[in-house]
Amino acid sequence: MTTKQFFVSLAALVLPLMGQAKVRLPHLVSDGMVLQQQSEARLWGWDQPGKTVRVSVSWSSDVYTVRTARDGKWQVKVKTPRAGYTPLSVTFDDGEKTTINGLLSGEVWVCAGQSNMEFPVRGFGNCPLKDYNEVVSTASDVRGIHFVKIPSVMRTKPQDDADCQWKTVDVNTVEDCSAVGYFFARKVSSVANVPVGLILANKGGSRVESWLDADNLKKYTQEELDSGKMVKKFPYDYLRPLLWGNGTFHPILNYTVKGILYYQGCSNVGAPGNEYSDRLKLLVEQWRRDFGEGEIPFYFVQIAPYIYGDGADGISGALLREQQERAASIIPNSALVCTNDLVYPWERNQIHPCQKQPVGERLAFLALNRNYGFKSIKCESPVYKSMFVEGDTCYVSIDKTYGGISRYDDIEGFEVAGADKIFHRAVAGHFWVAGQDRRNETIFVTSPEVKQPKYVRYCFRNFELGNLKNCANLPLMPFRTDKDE
Fold this sequence. Notes:
Layout: H1 3-19, E1 34-36, E2 40-46, E3 52-57, E4 63-67, E5 73-79, E6 84-93, E7 97-113, H2 115-118, H3 132-137, E8 145-149, E9 166-168, H4 179-192, E10 196-202, H5 214-220, H6 227-233, H7 243-249, E11 259-263, H8 275-291, E12 298-301, H9 316-330, E13 334-337, H10 357-370, E14 383-390, E15 393-399, E16 414-417, E17 424-425, E18 427-431, E19 441-446, E20 455-458, E21 479-480
Helix pairs in contact: 4-10, 8-9
């Protein structure tokens, strides 16, 4: 090779590198993004090692300076303004400027889990959304709701970027948004008058183990992490551990968020003992650690009635719901919404029930009450408190009723059993207790087939629809009194 040929070859190598010297941003940091309001929001990217990057913002005169590390990575925190609908911009300057536009300051929530969270407004095949046309045709009436869908991909190593794009909700885009996420955002935005950003990082069919990182899987589970053995054990890729967290969730962990919404559990039906609740707690601790924002809210959804492998009258799904209630009790700053009333009788074999609006709105009621100061919004379902037996009748005390229940007669979903633990359908109704604390209500439960009742269950089967609600029209959580016997 001549000297001239050498320098020509060298230039061919160097010039592309020089062209890459400009700041490179992750897809998530881009036009239309929503910044968490009144926070120190993280922005990050890549550049040449040792390069100085200056970050200026349209809402203040502040300029932030950061120097890239040896691997070319950089990260900076910027102070964000109060929520508002005025478009904002951020400029990154390393000698050549890059500007992102159309930003809003608002509230950022992650929509995580499996297919009932992934379920878009357009629905899935043979799984429509209730009132689809009404939802779509009114979407342009809302303002300031932006969303970004993280592609559902598997990776053996944690990923720092994902090919995604922020979208603004309108009549043409809303069908791509998570239905549960959209209804949550619509309610929060309208009541709190703030823009809402949704980061959709989920995968249909995924297990809780799909999102745990390698360290947690190795320390707390017996999950197989060798790729070949994993594929052999789980022919269906959506059941595989680790990979979805690496590919679909890890790219968002630098983002500054308000909280996490989670709808998952169907693929963990059948898990033994307290395995599911313990692992869900572990996952929440992992995510909170990685987001670095403390104990951010974690609001999640109870799996809906469905005929699992042990049939409509089986209890494998009921046991998972019970684990979800346990998880809510052991995970700080968390809450569970009940969906027992949001399935139609003809959806017995439908894993994706069509009523998604109440699910998203119940999550929003939690956020509005607990995080945005709207204490008049009631957000908790009634729960079992205690029971006593007199003769052939059980008297069940219900807590968190907000002063009353939805019906006095024709209450459905209760069963009773004697010492043999064979449960029979029961008649239930309101029972007045003189001097009773109005925060509680008492229900009488009786069955002509059980002369000496000992145990009560409510909707504790895979597919059992109840109709008892509190004054906020929120359904009674399924329960059983024979758990520890």
